[in-house]
Amino acid sequence: MMSTPSKQAAISAYRNLLRTQKEVFGNDLRAIQAAKKETYARFMQFKDETNTDVLDEKLTLAKQVASLLRQNVVQGESKDGEHFSKSRTEGKDSFSHDTTLSFPLELNITKDTELGDNDTIKTSKNIHRKGKRRAAKAAACCGGH
């Protein structure tokens, strides 16, 4: 029995997310299991969806999530085997770990991990801040006109 293209695309996106999770989270079985459970739940929400626009939107989201994981999440493992993850979204760092962080850490940085320096982040933040300040001053000065 042949699958419809959208079903094949969903299966492909699902498998891609599972592969990405294994690459990113390495040996952290708890993180892999949690990600797998969440992925399964999200895909099952739309298993009976027939609207191709909704399906395309969800498949695009799945690709974006896989890309975000590959580029912005770094898995770290301390010498005692405890794991933690660091992700970067919109210039803000967030950490997730099960126990107290101990150093030194071995980081799982892959070929897809987005590397940058603080100068580029500071520059991009300043651009956005300047624009907001100018808009606020113009609104205060002339009543927005």
From TrEMBL:
Residues 77-96 have a biased composition (Basic and acidic residues). Keywords: Chaperone, Mitochondrion, Transit peptide. GO terms for molecular function: protein folding chaperone. It is found in: Mitochondrion matrix. It comes from the Eukaryota. The keyword Cell membrane does not apply. Residues 76-98 are annotated as: Disordered. One of its GO terms (biological process) is mitochondrial respiratory chain complex III assembly. InterPro entries: Complex1_LYR_LYRM7 (IPR045298), MZM1/LYRM7 (IPR050435). Its main location: mitochondrion. GO terms for cellular component: mitochondrial matrix. The keyword Mitochondrion applies. Assembly factor required for Rieske Fe-S protein RIP1 incorporation into the cytochrome b-c1 (CIII) complex. Functions as a chaperone, binding to this subunit within the mitochondrial matrix and stabilizing it prior to its translocation and insertion into the late CIII dimeric intermediate within the mitochondrial inner membrane. Modulates the mitochondrial matrix zinc pool. Belongs to the complex I LYR family. MZM1 subfamily. Interacts with RIP1. This is Mitochondrial zinc maintenance protein 1, mitochondrial. It comes from Absidia glauca (Pin mould).
